[in-house]
Amino acid sequence: MKANRGEWVKIYNIVLTSEERAPQVPDDTRKVPLESWVKGFIQSDAEIGQFVEVVTITGRRVEGELVEINPAYTHNYGKFVPELLQIGIQARSILAGGDVHE
Amino acid sequence: MSKDMSYQGLMARRNEIMKQAVGIDYSIFESGSIAFDYEKMMRETGYTLEEMQKIQGDTGVGNTPVLELKNLTALARKVAPKGKGARIFIKDEASNPSGSFKARRAANAVYHAKKLGYKGVIAATSGNYGAAVASQAAMHGLKCIIVQECYDSKGVGQPEIIEKARKCEAYGAEVVQLTVGPELFYTFLKLLEETGYFNASLYTPFGIAGVETLGYELAIQFREKIGRDPDVVVCTNAGGGNLTGTARGLIKAGAESVNVVGASVNLQGLHMASDEQFNKKSFTTGHTGFGMPFSTWPDRSDVPRSAARPLRYMDRYVTVSQGEVFYMTEILAQLEGLERGPAGNTSLAAAFSIAQELNEDQIIVVQETEYTGAGKHIQAQLSFARENGIEIRFGNPEEEVPGQNIILPNHPSLIKARDFDMDKIRKSYIKNCLEIRGIEKISDADMDFLVQETKSSYDFVKESLAERNIQL
Ligand SMILES: Cc1ncc(COP(=O)(O)O)c(C=O)c1O
């Protein structure tokens, strides 16, 4: 996939390698690098995976690996959790005078 | 010569960068020992209540409604002993711009940044505060960068934090997203140094004082509505600013007899800086992973002296389980027609239990709500937990083990606020003061300070010090 100059993209960097990490981090975290993602307008045409420069929305110039073009928000409401249905049903029946536990 | 940008190199410039970025010389409040002049710091670097009401009011922050949760109260009375079950009220802070009480903190911080002539603001936060700062920066025409801890090393993001990033970007902010680790602070310092922007820290006097308007409003609203102050106010507690500001506001309104309760979600056993455990928790704030360390050592924040000092104001500190908070979030929607939270509903779950200890004519207040939506919603969070191997089932909340399961209460009678031993927390704070500052001898001023910091007595502090062989 190719990004054209001026497109909105997401770039990736390793901020600290595993060796450079702070002394106080737990062992499982120390095994992996500290990584970062920033979005901005790409300054040259490039392919995914290439090292590029972007200008962020605040005007900072940041370099990094191109990972996504027009990065989308994909968070949602997840898969349906049927247990939740039971909570309201039970509470309404208790309020209606039904089952009360002491 | 170019600057040393290594972790150690940058951290060595920490104080210098911070002083530039908050515009406060904290040294003038220091005594050289344990004690520092907290009230002087709040007075000289903060704003008066009237000024804050004006600053916040000008951007549509504050004056949020207080709602009586009549059906929830009725449910509590069904499961309470006869004659018990206080009236439960909630202050709907979700109706602030940006959707949470954090707008109050951000309003002051961003106003102050603008007044001092900064071109932009930066905040290190994965939560509602980022959205609040971004929203305020938009109103004041300042640039804004939010630094988030968002992903684990597999690149899996906590949905609630991803939603916060979206919200910040919606307000025109730049969001820098990181994987798990305390070195977020390193990236934060680097950005402050690079941009010269203001550190809109959660813990400055202007930020914390911004919450005083909440406590003040609350007292006034109750006097107007009911004719008296509430008996208990429950605050969801993490970094301690919510509770500190609210309690200070209550005191400023003269509502000194109100019992102030802190409530956190129990995440005991999960390490906050652990990459593997990052996505095993279903709460990104309001939990013990922040609440306990910040209560027992508030000066761990990103400023030299935190203005959030919850032990000064806390009468009681309770925990509830993740399952209990999710359950109450669903109940709030089903019985009261309010979709809010979940993290902000931590105090709601606690209040539902504490109401059952009180008489029917007493009043308990949940002092905030927060917005909900994609990523944040209980459907999203529970579904995410299930995908991460967390077992979700009905049962007794006592069986919940953070990181392994989420137990939805089988029945509302099973919801229980569990008390921490306050004296143990107070002693832990005193121990941290002594050990972290390397103190062996205590002055009279330190003594008075410790009594105030722990909301205890001279005798209690004396005894705690004696246990550690500290001379007076
Ligand atoms: C909705 C909500 N409630 C409560 C809190 C806890 O506030 P504090 O960190 O000041 O204790 C937060 C903070 O993250 C929050 O976003």
Features:
heterodimer; A: 102 residues; alpha+beta; SH3 type barrels; four-stranded antiparallel β-barrel; B: alpha/beta; Rossmann fold; 3 domains; seven-stranded mixed β-sheet; binds pyridoxal-5'-phosphate
**Which second-level CATH architecture of the domain at 2-72 in chain A applies?**
Roll
Note the quaternary state here.
heterodimer
The fraction of residues assigned to DSSP E strands of chain B is 5-15%
Task: Show unreliable segments of chain A.
Answer: none
Task: State the helix count of chain A.
Answer: 2
Level-1 CATH class name of the domain at 2-72 in chain A: Mainly Beta
Question: Which regions of chain B have little confidence, pLDDT < 50, spanning 5+ residues?
Answer: none
Summarize the amount of helix of chain A as a percent range.
10-25%
Strand order of the largest sheet of chain A: 2-3-5-6
Distance between the termini of chain B: 49 Å
Main beta-sheet strand count, sense and barrel state of chain B: 7 strands, mixed
- What is the number of strand segments of chain A? 6
